[in-house]
Input
Amino acid sequence: MAPYASDDSTHAGEADDLRVGRRKAARYVVPVTVAGVAAATIGLVPAIADSGDPDLPKITAQQLIEKIAASDVQQLSGTVKITTDLGLPDLGGLESGLLSGATGETDGSSADPSAKLTELASGTHTLRVAADGPDRQKLSLLENAAEYSLIHNGKNVWGYDSSSNEVYHSTVEEGAKEETPVPATPKALAEEALKAVDTTSVTVDGTVQVAGRDAYKLLVKPKQSGSTVGAVSVAVDAKTGLPLKFTLTPASGGAAVVDAGFTQVSFTKPAASTFDFTPPKGAKVTEEDAAEAPEHSGELAEEDFGKDLAGLNVLGEGWTSVATFDTGGEGVPSSDDLPAEAGGLGGFLDSFGDKVTGEFGSGTVFSTRLINALVTDDGKVYVGAVTKDALVKAAESER
Output
């Protein structure tokens, strides 16, 4: 996510290095999933009614940023409501089916957090969260008559999907922070939005009440042209400095793309039993080591659909930065290239994307309200919270 620098004598130091994860991708998976995955790493959302206009002491943008940085809330519990509106069409479950078919992971665990929590990238969801220091955290995704929980307790990390009665287990070093595949709290989202670069306007935009607590509103706006981000608003708890709500609106206007916030929060120590977990009787338990080494065969073997994307690169900086990598494929597939379970996806991809040409050659741009992705005909991918023209310029800058 892009970062900040104040426009009113607010300076946050030198820019943080943009961290880029390593991913593997099949060439026919990228067009469907890249926008959703990229958006998931940027943010989430809730429709939460703000109330009141508390009378709080005046504070500058620099002071409020420092308050966020100094916040050290170790113990809390509460409920977060998240709503994401990227403007993606309803794929009717096709995306998840295509992903499992492409990777050969049809026997993977439904409790694997790397897959389960990407559901937060669309729709409205309710989460229960709890934390007690760096070694104990719990996040529960409440669904219709079911619940998914991700629990970190000491060296053990458990994922449990009640709908399938499946368990996913891994271990970490004690004291290590367990990170979920997507930022799932306003604090995590705000930290991504407040990475310092000299391309942002930052101001204090009044006060508000969130989850019954008085808060300041920090307003972050890109200065650069070409970004699809209009503004980011962060409600910061006046007492603790903890971000309570995060709202991202697109440059195109309309409803928020991301709007995540607490509906209830407490800073008392959660009961130790909150983080206890024992696999239920009869549950299928998948250990991380076994899950990471699935067998592949046929046309969908790992060596056929992509190499380790260690060469993922970032072009530009700030709000208009573009991530790029090579899938090792041949761009957007035709219907004949897709697996049988993809059905008529080839025609769908053609209708969803816009054909573009330039000095880089030709390709297809897939767009959402926030994230756009260019897949060139020779298999390179350019993705970011930028306009179509910015993607084309980024592709041309590499040729």
